[in-house]
Write a structure and sequence with these properties.
about 100 residues; mainly alpha; two-stranded antiparallel ribbon; elongated
């Protein structure tokens, strides 16, 4: 089953790579992007698109990592609090049995 997952992953990655290469070859028109007073050098449209896709993907991964880290820290704090309450309950049970 593991080999099937790897084969599917390789096929999907090859399809993405071939699609990206085809996209870049078909969109060779050069443009210059302008934002406010800044202007970029003239580069192919496909290069701007691929760079935007990569930057968006990296930003998404970074935001996901931040959210996951925040949730793990919250889980750790709540786990410590739960352990503290369990110890307190055990202490109270032993005092109730003695007294």
């Amino acid at each position: 089953m593991q080999w099937l997952k790897r084969a599917v992953l390789i096929i999907v990655l090859l399809l993405v790579a071939l699609s990206t290469i085809d996209f870049m070859l078909e969109n060779q028109q050069s443009i210059a992007l302008q934002f406010l007073e800044f202007s970029s050098p003239q580069l192919p449209i496909s290069l701007f698109m691929v760079i935007a896709f990569i930057l968006g993907s990296l930003l998404g991964i970074f935001i996901g990592w931040l959210m996951t880290t925040r949730l793990r820290l919250r889980l750790m704090v709540q786990s410590n609090e739960l352990n503290r309450y369990r110890k307190e309950i055990d202490k109270l049970r032993t005092q109730a049995v003695k007294g």
